[in-house]
Write a structure and sequence with these properties.
Bound molecules: thiamine diphosphate, iron/sulfur cluster
Number of domains: 1
Helix content: 25-40%
Number of helices: 10
Radius of gyration: 18 Å
Order of helices and strands: HEEHEHHEEEHEHEHEHEHH
Structural class: alpha/beta
Shape: globular
Length: 288
């Protein structure tokens, strides 16, 4: 009998260098929890990282890793997945990296539906380079590059993901590690491109979207009987920002992956896909 994995099995010899209190710690814990719950050995998973405080996680998680160019994590990850379809591929990056520099890759990854998972640390600023405005910075928000306030409308990543054809679109919060762990587990098990946008307070450079600001606004979509298979309902929820912000699985559909489509062109029938359900409650209890 094999010994169950623990989240500490994914630690490296480096302790994170993030600012004390940064939301990145919650995402780091949730990702390690999820890898352990999924029984994914470090040698069976590739994590591709963007550039930023978020991408610095490459030094703090034990697995195969690739830390490439700013905004180019998704194409590297898709290439790796297509070269080795048995590899579990996860991408970790920031909102600047993924929705700014890499915005085009994000849109096309969503519609392509390659079977990888994309976790975005959405802190509404460029953290590593000291707090410049990011695509998700709220309109009018002063930042180090816009001291008098931004004039661009903020991008809504989850609404964009649904509109662009995402087959698994979800939103977590770095202050709720339990829910985020479950979302990452479900995302990795989803057959297709899965997107987890994580609301992640940057305690050093974003003094507006703080932990307490989010705690007052986030609510779990399960608590309002949200139908994640209804695209219109999902889109309406995804647009919410301000007084209330939804977390949880917003939208999911099962459709052929990019590889399935290629096989179809080769004359093979489309695979019948299903999502396995596993009970990770016991494993989760051991993390609390
Ligand atoms: C092509 C390119 N442009 C700019 C930079 C400088 N740069 C490094 S990290 C970064 C911002 C990262 O912000 P984000 O992706 O939001 O991640 P965070 O640090 O907030 O986690 C920038 C602009 C770079 N490395 N490469
Ligand atoms: S600058 Fe912000 S995002 Fe980066 S480690 Fe510090 S608190 Fe976290």
């Amino acid at each position: 009998m094999t010994t169950p994995l623990k989240n500490t099995d994914f630690n490296t010899t480096h302790f994170p260098t993030w600012c004390p209190g940064c939301g990145d710690f919650g995402i780091w814990t949730a990702l390690k929890n999820a890898l352990a719950a999924l029984e994914m050995k470090p040698s069976n998973v590739l994590i591709v990282y963007g550039i930023g405080c978020s991408g610095n996680m490459s030094s703090f998680i034990k697995s195969y890793g690739f830390h490439g160019l700013h905004g180019r994590a998704l194409p590297a990850a898709i290439g790796a997945k297509l070269a080795n379809k048995n590899l579990k591929v996860i991408v970790v990056g920031g909102d600047g990296d993924g929705y700014g520099e890499g915005g085009n890759h994000f849109i096309h990854a969503l519609r392509g539906n390659v079977d990888i998972t994309y976790i975005v640390h959405d802190n509404q600023v460029y953290g590593l380079t000291k707090g410049q405005m990011a695509p998700t910075t709220e309109l009018g928000q002063p930042t180090s590059s816009t001291p008098e306030g931004t004039v661009d409308q903020a991008l809504n990543p989850v609404a964009l993901a649904i509109a662009a054809g995402g087959s698994f679109v979800s939103q977590g919060f770095a202050g709720d590690v339990g829910q985020l762990t479950q979302l990452i587990v479900d995302a990795v098990k989803h057959p297709g491109f899965s997107h987890v946008n994580v609301l992640q307070p940057c305690v050093t450079f974003n003094h507006h979207n703080t932990f307490s600001w989010f705690f007052k606004r986030v609510y779990k979509v399960e608590s309002v009987q949200h139908d994640f298979s209804n695209k219109y309902e999902a889109f309406a929820r995804a647009l919410e920002w301000g007084d209330k912000i939804p977390t949880g699985l917003l939208y999911r559909e099962i459709r052929p992956t990019w590889v399935d489509r290629v096989h179809e062109l080769d004359g093979e029938p489309l695979a019948t896909r299903r999502i396995d359900t596993i009970d990770i409650s016991k494993t989760l209890q051991s993390f609390t």
